[in-house]
Write a structure and sequence with these properties.
Strand order of the largest sheet: 2-3-1-4-5
InterPro entries: P-loop_NTPase, Stf3_sulfotransferase
Order of helices and strands: HHHEHEHHHHHHEHEHHEHHHHH
Protein name: Sulfotransferase family protein
Pfam family, one: Sulfotransfer_3
Oligomer: single chain
Helix content: 40-55%
GO molecular function: transferase activity
Number of strands: 5
Organism: Cupriavidus phytorum
Number of helices: 18
Number of domains: 1
CATH topology: Rossmann fold
CATH superfamily: P-loop containing nucleotide triphosphate hydrolases
CATH architecture: 3-Layer(aba) Sandwich
Largest sheet: 5 strands, parallel
Length: about 400
C-alpha cells in the first residue's frame, strides 16, 4: 500500500465531522506519519486491510473532533472525577477479562463496554442520551469479526455489550497499541522513545466523557472505574501520575503458558488486516514486548509504595473467583456486599469458561521455545511464579 496522506486524512475527518477542526492537544500528526510510513513499508496489508485500518484511523480522528467540541460546549465534562480507578494489569491470558467482567457487574464500578471503547463519541445526528446507533454498529462489527475469524472467540470472548479493555480509547492518541493490528516494527521502535503522558491524558478525557454520557443517560453514578489492559505494563509510572488515586491489581500466570497464547492472539489480529502475516515474526515480536513490559512493571513497583499493588494469580481466579474478589474488594477498601456477590454469581453462571472452544496452538509455530521463554522471563518467573506463596 502507499503511505496514508496524513493531511488528507485530517481533512476528510474534519469534513465527516461537519467542519470541526480542533483535534485537541498532542503529537498526533507525527504519530500518524510514523505509523503511516511503517504500515506502507512493513505491514504487507491486504487491500481490504489497508482500507479497514485507514477507516479506523479516520474514525478515531472524527471522535477526537467530536469529543473536543463536546468538551468546549460542556466544560463540566472535564470536571468529572475519574482519578482513582482500580486497574487490572497483567500479561494477556492471565484472567484479566474474567476479573474485570466479574467486578463490572457491581454498579459501584464504572466500566466501558466494547461498544463504548469502539464508539466513544455520538455519531452524526445521534442524541447523546440514546446510543442505540453506536450499539448497533458495534454489534454488527463484532459479528463481522467473528464471521471472518471464528477462532477469535476461543482467544477473547468478544461481546459488544460487555466490559472490555480501554486500549481502544488510548489509541485515539495514536501513540498506543497500533502494533496489535499489524507488523509495524519501525512504529513500535519509535513509540518506545515517546513520552506517554499524552496517552493517559487522552484516556482521562475519554473516561470523563464516557462518565458524563452515562449521566446524560440517567445512569446512577458509580464510585470508581474498573479498567484493564496489558498496555499499562509499559507505562505504570505514567498511569499513577495522571491517575494519582489509582490502585493496581497485578495478575500473574507462567509466561510459558501465556506468551505462546498471546502470540496466537496477535497473529490472529494481524490476519484481519494483512496478507499472510508471519507467525514467527508475531511470536518473537510480542514475546520481546511482553518481556520488556514485565521487567518495567517490576521496576516501577519496586519504586512505589507496596500498598498501591495487589497480586492475583490466574489459578486462584479460576479456582476461587469469590475468594479473589474478596481480596480485591479488601484492597480497594470496599465491602463485598451480598448484592455484588449475587451479580457476580449470575454473570459467572451465564458465562461459564467451559463453553468457550479450546484455543489450539503450538509455541513452535510462533518461533518460541520453552528454553527461550525461561531465559527471557527468568526474573519475572523467579519473583511471581516459581516462588509462589499460598493464597491468603
Amino acid at each position: 500500500m502507499n503511505a496514508i496522506n496524513v493531511e488528507r486524512l485530517l481533512a476528510q475527518a474534519s469534513e465527516q465531522a461537519g467542519g470541526l477542526d480542533d483535534f485537541g492537544p498532542g503529537n498526533y500528526r507525527e504519530a500518524l506519519r510514523v505509523l503511516s510510513d511503517s504500515l506502507a513499508r512493513e505491514a504487507n496489508l491486504s487491500p481490504q486491510g489497508a482500507q479497514m485500518l485507514q477507516g479506523k484511523l479516520q474514525a478515531q480522528l472524527v471522535n477526537r473532533l467530536v469529543i473536543q467540541d463536546y468538551c468546549r460546549r460542556h466544560p463540566e465534562i472535564l470536571q468529572e472525577r475519574v482519578e482513582d480507578p482500580l486497574v487490572i494489569v497483567g500479561l494477556p491470558r492471565t484472567g484479566t477479562t474474567l476479573l474485570q467482567r466479574m467486578l463490572a457487574t457491581d454498579a459501584r464500578f464504572s466500566s466501558a463496554a466494547w461498544w463504548e471503547t469502539r464508539y466513544p463519541a455520538p455519531l452524526p445526528g445521534e442524541d447523546v442520551r440514546d446510543p442505540s446507533q453506536r450499539i448497533a454498529a458495534a454489534r454488527e462489527e463484532v459479528a463481522q469479526m467473528i464471521r471472518f475469524i471464528p477462532d477469535i472467540l476461543a482467544i477473547h470472548p468478544l461481546d459488544a455489550m460487555a466490559a472490555d479493555e480501554e486500549f481502544m480509547l488510548m489509541e485515539h492518541s495514536f501513540l498506543c497499541a497500533m502494533d496489535s493490528y499489524a507488523n509495524v516494527p519501525a512504529y513500535t521502535g519509535w513509540l518506545a522513545q515517546q513520552d506517554h503522558t499524552e496517552v493517559y491524558a487522552c484516556l482521562k478525557t475519554m473516561l470523563q466523557f464516557l462518565q458524563w454520557q452515562k449521566r446524560q443517560r440517567g445512569e446512577k453514578p458509580a464510585q470508581r472505574w474498573v479498567l484493564k489492559t496489558p498496555q499499562h505494563l509499559h507505562t505504570l509510572e505514567v498511569l499513577f501520575r495522571v491517575f494519582p488515586g489509582a490502585q493496581v491489581v497485578l495478575t500473574h500466570r507462567d509466561p510459558l503458558q501465556t506468551i505462546p497464547s498471546m502470540a496466537s492472539m496477535a497473529h490472529t489480529l494481524w490476519k484481519l488486516y494483512a496478507d499472510d502475516p508471519d507467525p514467527v515474526t508475531a511470536g518473537r515480536q510480542w514475546s520481546e514486548q511482553m518481556r520488556r513490559g514485565t521487567d518495567h512493571a517490576m521496576a516501577v513497583r519496586d519504586a512505589m509504595p507496596a500498598e498501591r499493588f495487589l497480586d492475583v494469580r490466574f489459578e486462584d481466579t479460576v479456582r476461587d473467583p469469590f475468594g479473589v474478589a474478596q481480596a480485591v474488594y479488601r484492597f480497594a477498601g470496599m465491602p463485598l456486599t451480598e448484592t455484588a456477590r449475587a451479580g457476580m454469581w449470575a454473570w459467572m453462571e451465564s458465562n461459564p469458561r467451559n463453553q468457550r472452544a479450546a484455543h489450539a496452538y503450538t509455541p513452535e509455530r510462533f518461533g518460541l521455545s520453552e528454553a527461550q521463554l525461561e531465559r527471557d522471563f527468568a526474573g519475572y518467573r523467579a519473583r511471581h511464579i516459581l516462588n509462589r506463596k499460598p493464597p491468603e
